[in-house]
Design brief:
With 167 residues, the chain is of the alpha/beta class. It is built from six helices and eight strands. A hairpin with a 5-residue loop joins strand 7 and strand 8. The longest helix has 11 residues. The protein is elongated and about 65 Å long.
Length: 167
Amino acid sequence: MSIDAKIKPSLWFAGDAEDAVHFYTSIFPSSKIGDVARYTEAGQEEHQMKMGSVMSMDFTLHNRSFFAINGPPVFQFSQAISFTVSCEDQKEIDYYWEKLGDGAELGPCGWLKDRFGVSWRVVPKVLEEMMANGNEEQRASVSKAKSKMGKFDVEGLKRAFESDGST
């Protein structure tokens, strides 16, 4: 796979990069696995990974390039870095919430931490539009409504946006 972006997220997985990459590429359209490098005897005393196991993988999710590193458990993911999935409608929200949420730690306001420890936010595009284009009362009403949601409910957000702010 050629490097097609100047900035490419690199994700360090603690021994389960291959499983993670297969999981993600099975969820997102226009996704594929590219180059895969495997550990050899070189550096064995330092990395201590099984010879022949995956060392790194290039992959794309929805036409975006990523790089997975498969190493010993010296680094962990943090919610300080996350990926946002911007969804067209409730059907898309339901799909990504279910798929990424399989074995995940589900949180508020569309947040989840998947089974590999990567944080995602599954968000309806209409929420972004409401917050950008609404007046102060509408934004406050939507903020109040979304703070009570785990997975976003588009109709609930629309009702909040159209209300007088009392919901």
